Amino acid sequence: NELYAVVGHPVSHSKSPRIHSLFASQTGEPVEYIAIQAPLDGFAETVRHFFEGGGKGLNVTVPFKEQAWALAQSRTARAEKAGAANTLYQNSQGQLVADNTDGQGLVQDLITNHSVQLKGARILVLGAGGAVRGVLGPLLAQQPASLTIANRTVAKAEALATLFADEAGATTLGACGFEAPDQPFDVIINGTSASLQGDLPPLCANVIAAGTVVYDMMYSLQTTTFNQWALDNGATRVFDGVGMLVEQAAESFRVWRGVRPETVPVIETLRSD
Ligand code: ATR
């Protein structure tokens, strides 16, 4: 078997080993996939050691995605703009390549698994940290009518809007604080880490209409704090990040193995685990 792993700190909660072992059995690919906890000051050393030992590919999770990006000698276009990498491998010249499959995972989950129309949609994205930066390029590539980035620290939302202006095309790309938007959106994506502290972004409930699709990028067994708020305010189509998690994994598997696994059965298995 060929060896793959997810590197993080902490990493014991990661679903990636489970997801990739389901992909391996489904596709028959000779993949063994483990979790590695790197010391907080030892990410680069852990990566070097893994590839020197014959490892084939890594996923990278919190808090190392930016370090993975910086460490790589080569980056895919989508990783370059994301400023962070969740996927590493070596090319035929032995260079470390960084990719980022998070945004593709989100878009794939919305379009394919939830039949959400992104082209022409009015999209509200909450948050302006690394998680949001990773998904803006793939969202803009779907040509929404507008994409509004709302954040607690407005200057960070503005900086992201400036950074992605060259990928906006005909999309109206804007930035604001949480309180500003007061019209319904077609799609609202929560990319803040506020729920981790049990906090809610102070949004006006008018951003939700009956048809609004609400997506919390956080993966949770229970309804997330944000999604519960949306349901309480009339949303009917509310999703969490489990599909994104499986889709980004499938895209990494495809990058490494050239085979894209079926994701729906894996999403169903995770939900019933
Ligand atoms: P990540 O990698 O998860 O994106 P990050 O880069 O630290 O982590 O970004 C966290 C995001 O969640 C930021 O947009 C942050 O807002 P600020 O830019 O104002 O810090 C947002 N966030 C974190 N805690 C929050 C809270 N309690 N309420 C609202 N937004 C919060």
Write up what this structure looks like.
Homodimer. Shikimate binds at residues 14-16, 61, 86, 102, 219, 248. Involved in the biosynthesis of the chorismate, which leads to the biosynthesis of aromatic amino acids. Catalyzes the reversible NADPH linked reduction of 3-dehydroshikimate (DHSA) to yield shikimate (SA). This is Shikimate dehydrogenase (NADP(+)). The active site is at 65 (proton acceptor). The protein has 273 residues and is an alpha/beta fold. The protein has two domains: 2-100 and 243-272, 3-Layer(aba) Sandwich (Rossmann fold), CATH 3.40.50; 103-240, NAD(P)-binding Rossmann-like Domain (Rossmann fold, 3-Layer(aba) Sandwich), CATH 3.40.50. It is built from ten helices and twelve strands. The chain has helices at residues 16-27, 43-52, 65-71, 77-82, 102-113, 130-140, 154-163, 225-232, 242-257, 264-272; strands at residues 2-8, 31-37, 57-60, 74-75, 87-90, 96-99, 122-126, 146-150, 172-176, 187-190, 213-216, 237-239. A six-stranded mixed beta sheet has the order 2-1-3-5-6-4, with helices on both faces. A six-stranded parallel beta sheet has the order 9-8-7-10-11-12. Strand 5 (87-90) and strand 6 (96-99) form a beta hairpin. The longest helix is centred in the last third of the chain and has 16 residues, at 242-257. The protein starts with a strand and ends with a helix. The model has no long low-confidence stretch (mean pLDDT 97). 2'-monophosphoadenosine-5'-diphosphate (ATR) binds next to helix 6.
